[in-house]
Every structure is written in C-alpha cells, then in structure tokens.
Amino acid sequence: MKCCENGGNTSTKKWVFLTLMILVIALGSLFVYQQLKHRTADQSLGTPLFTLEDQGVKVEVFSKKGSIDVGKQDLTIRVSGGDLKSLYLYMPPMPGMGEMREDATIQKVSDGVYNATLNVSMAGSWQLFVQVDGKVLKKDISVPFAGQRTAVDDQSQIVVNTKAMQLIGIQTHEVSYMDLSESFSVVGYVSYDLSHVHQITLRSDAWVLDTFSRFEGELVKRGTPLMKVLSPEVRIAQEELNLAKSLGRQDIERLSKEKLSYLHAGQVVTSPVNGLILEKKVNPGGFLKAGEVAYTLVDLSNLWVVAEVPLEFSSYLKKGMKVLVKPVGEEKLYEGRVDYIFPVADKEARTVKARISLRGASLKINQLVEVIFETQPVRVLAVPESAVVDTGRRQVVFVQKGEGMYEPRQIKLGRRFQDYYEVLDGLSEGERVVVKGTFFLDSEAQIKGLYGGEEKSHEHHHH
C-alpha cells in the first residue's frame, strides 16, 4: 500500500516539474520574441544616436545614416510620455557671427513615432532642443566638418568647408617681421613755462591811479591795460620844457620834450603778452618805486607738463622724444617733446619726473593729463593680437595648412606692441594665421581634444 502511494507522489512531482519547465521555456521564448521584435522595430527606425529622458518623458533619436552631418537629415524620433511638438538645432552667437537656428519639419508616423527632416547648414557645436508637450529636453551635439580629410587632419587639424568659411567669416594674416614700438602711459600735470614769465616794472617812481579791476588768475590779452600811473618827474620835466622855451634854447627844449614824452608813455601800462596774471602787487592809490614788480604774468602759448614716470620705464626716456598728452576725461590729443629729465628720483613713489614742452595747447594750469610715451621701433617677428587664443596654460594660434585646413599651434610670445605680439617661438615668417573666426576654431579644437585635455574655460584675446 505504501509502495503505491510513493509511486503516485513521484508521478505528481514529475508532472509538476515538466509543467514548470514548459512554462519557463514558453516565457523565455516570448521574451526572446519580444526582444527580437523590438530590435527589428529599432532597426527599421535606423541607427540609434542618443536618448533623452526627463521626469517620465523619453525621447529616442534614430538616423538611417548613423550620424548627423552637414546637409539634409532624415531622423526618426520615438517618444514616450507625451507628444512631440517641435525639434530644432540652435547655435549661440559668436564673435563675427550671429546666432543660428534650424527647425525640423515633423510628421507623425504612428503612435509615439515621428519623422523629422532637418537641414544642417554648417558644421560646429550645436544645441538640440526637443519639445514634448510642455517639457523641453536639450542635448549638445557636434556636427563634424565636411570636406577632404587626411590622416593628419583627423589627428591634429580642423577642416572647414567653403560654405562654413563664408558663414564664419574666417580671415587670415601673414606672419612677418615688423618695425614696432612699445607704448606706455603715465599721469602728469600741467604747469606754466617758467621761461615765459614776464614781470611788469616801472623805470621811475610813480603813483598808481588805477588797476582796471585786474586780479590774480585772470587771463588777459596782449594790450590789456594793467594800471594807470603818474610819475612825480612829469611836473619837473614840464617846468624844464617851459623854461627852455622862455630862454629860446631849442636844444634844451628838444631834450625836455623827449624826457616828457618818455615819462608820459608810461602812464597806462598794458600787458605785453596773451597770458595769465600770476601775481598782482599794486592797488589804486599806492606808490610804486622804480624797478619794483607790479605784476607777474605768464605767456600760456607754451606750457609744461610734468610726468611722473615709473623707474622701470625710465630707461626709455630720451630728451627730445615725442609724446602724446591727453587731458583726463577728454579725447583730444596734443603732441609735445621731452625737454628735460629731472636727475633726482622719488624713492618713495619710485618715479622720475620728465618735463614735456607743449605749444598751443588749450589746457589749464594744474590740470591732470595722461602722458603717452612711445619707444623707438624695433624689428620683430609679429602676430596680430586677435590671432592669439590664451587657454590659460599656453598661447595658441590657428595656422592655415591648406584650403579650409587649420592647425592649432602653441607659440611663445614676447613683448606686446599695441595690437601685436612679438613671436619668440612656434611660427615662421610667411605662415598664415587666423585673425577672425578663432572663437569657432577654438571650440572645435576643444571638442576634438586638440589641447591635450586642458580645461575648456579659457580666455580669448579679441579686439
């Protein structure tokens, strides 16, 4: 009896085991079938490029070509979690080029599947925006350059097709030797020219009758009356003349007339120059002795500018060198010459004074000015400042290697001469470097890793 029961239990276990095996095989077959079906569906959509996901929304982008290139693109978009509303490429503005946007034409194929036709006008770094209902998903993509490529290009060069060159506006400049000069600017102040100071004195004692309301700091023109005086000797000379007439002495009469004319000539004293009254030492009713200074005037047709030059630039100073003087807050420039270099330096300020002579400048005494010095030209191998990209660790230029082919190259820079740099190493005379469009080429060099993994954030010298 027990034997029969054991046999029945064994049969039941075998039946359960077989049933489970059949179920597992069926489920596995179904899974494989679904995977094959899904893969077949994906293959019919094209090569998967990338997937975007955000809070329940999933966007898969496929392409028959397997990439996004310059020109017409036929993409297939599979969306879950909403309906596709728009898709477009966007390129931010860059120096010399405005922003660009390429919108796709979208056609719904089936539930969640769309065909998108997109025209990519140029290679470069784009941003892809996909709108699903009210949500926008974004991805940065790089569209490769079209055109001839060589093994060298793939490793170290950037190739730009003709259309892209026109859109970017790439311009180049030939590296050459140039006669360049350095310039530096310092602060200075305006002073009057002590060699053009005039002191007003009388040849004889006199009473001051009037000063015509003149005052210190007043600008006067040549011939402006400064004071009216009366000499005590005038009466004596008049009496001598009358006596000579009564005696009939023509020789004495002639001498007396000359003396009287001389004394009367000084009765109204006028300014001998166009200038500034620095000092006024007389007042109406006062008495002025012969030789005493009544007024001190300075001729402003010639001025001095005293410049404070840092000691590190003092070796550039030369007597007679030309300089430019620019009043603070103004755009007008005056040309002058260094006429004296003071022999003593200011040890605290670490400066030395240089005096500049200016003629015909409309400046005010003690006015602050900017003094621009320019050194003697030197011959150097030079490159425009606009060609240099500073990565933060090194300086790079883009050398033209052929039509539409550019190589980023590290160079060593020397002195800066206004809009040019001296090239110490890395370039040869006759090579051509990009001076416009470097921002775009720099972005491509970063994407291709041509800077050897340097940080992406760096500065550009563009002017």
Automatic annotation (TrEMBL):
Q: Which Pfam families match?
A: Beta-barrel_RND_2, CzcB_C, YtkA
In which domain of life is the source organism classified?
Bacteria
What are the residue boundaries of the CusB-like beta-barrel domain, all occurrences included?
303-370
Q: Which InterPro entries match?
A: Beta-barrel_RND_2 (IPR058792), CzcB_C (IPR058649), MFP_Cation_Efflux (IPR051909), YtkA-like_dom (IPR032693)
* Protein name per its UniProtKB record: Membrane fusion protein, Cu(I)/Ag(I) efflux system
One cellular component term (GO) for this entry is: cell envelope
What is any one GO biological process for this UniProt entry? Answer: plasma membrane copper ion transport
Question: Which keywords does the record carry?
Answer: Ion transport, Membrane, Signal, Transmembrane, Transmembrane helix, Transport
Task: List each copy of the YtkA-like domain by range.
Answer: 79-128
Q: Tell me which residues make up the CzcB-like C-terminal circularly permuted SH3-like domain.
A: 381-441
| Transmembrane intervals | 15-33
Q: Which Gene3D superfamilies match?
A: 2.40.30.170, 2.40.420.20
Q: Which organism does this sequence originate in?
A: Thermocrinis minervae
